Structure prediction request, 160 residues.
Amino acid sequence: MWNLINEGINSLTNLCKSAVQSLAKSVVAVLLVATLVALPFMSETLAQPSSYASMTAASSTKLEAIRDRFDRLEQIVYSTNWNDIISYIHGPLGEIRRDLRMLTIGLDKTKKEAVTNAANSLFKSLVKIDIAAKERNASALETAFKNSVTELDSIIDLVS
Prediction:
């Protein structure tokens, strides 16, 4: 009886081994076919010489939009309309962090780090503008605004 059980276990083991081997061959075949099917699409994407140019054009457009927002902020800052300054910082300039992060995607490591550092300084300046507006401190507001413009200009220089 034990011999019969051992023979059954051995048969089952061999059957499982062969099923696993067959499954492994099938998986390899599927992966090979998927690679062969995807390869032309990948090579077209990688070979596009205009992708860098289009990314640079998109960056320039985004930077122009950010610069336009800062031009509008300048008008509001020098009108010392405190509530409008606060609203503008939290409204139209609220997306600037995301926008600048998106600009760094195509940059090399050195430029990316420099832009990230300048962007962090810019964000700190925007916080200072917000605080100065809440405290109705015109001199601190002007200093923080000038610092933010300097940082934005350095980001534009790095990305351009």
